[in-house]
Design a protein that fits this description.
Radius of gyration: 56 Å
Organism: Sulfitobacter delicatus
Distance between the termini: 117 Å
Keywords: Coiled coil, Membrane, Transmembrane, Transmembrane helix
Number of helices: 8
Strand content: under 5%
Strand order of the largest sheet: 1-2
Protein name: DNA repair protein
Amino acid sequence: MTQLRDFAYLIQYLFQRIAVALFLVAALALSFASVMAALGQWNWISLPIEYNGAPIENAGMYAQLALTALAIGLCFFLPANKRIMQLENSHRKFAVGMQDVARAYAAVHAADRADTFQLSSEFDSVRERLAYLRDHPDLSTLEPTVLEMAAQMSHVARDLAEVYSDDKIARARSFLKQRQEEVELFNSRLDQAKAISTEMKHWLHEVELEESVAVAQLERLRDEMQEIMPELGLERVVPTEEPAEQPKADSTTLDNIVIDLPPKAAE
């Protein structure tokens, strides 16, 4: 992708230079031809142009002078175009230089995060990083100024490399992985507990339903037994009117209690 972009920049640069040269040549040629025609050495351009059915005299001369004026006027824009092209070229060079610096800094910063450099003083630290960049197989074609700038940037960011070293990042990743596994285990146990709770609730509901059915059957059986077996001694006490004052229990008081016995079955 980078090579294709560089090739496009080269084609654009060539066509810009060709266009500037064509403008200059056209302006000079038209100016020279117009001057020679004005001096009578050359003939003016002849153009058979008619307007409203009548031919226009000296139409070629007017056209030639107009083209000459246009070509000379375009030449005044060439200095501005030159400055624009110089600015574009400098911007491209700056972009390429910054890309190289960023690539070199990324390489030396990765090495710094892996605890490759041990020297602490600024001079020794920059020299050690610069030597590493010079020996790097992918950065051997870069300019020394680019490598020096990347080495200085790496020295300034050495604290950042120490904080985010590969060892510390690996420990942090391991810790987070363990926490994630613990959370997953807790979630699995929580799902299992929810399933057990749901099962127990359903089981309790079934037991209560069976108990209610058993109680209803027992009540119905008791009612049936009262109807078909009155001789079992089941009796119902019918209370009489209570006196205003409750006397002491004696034989007369007991006579006031009437016991209602169900009729016996016919023998």
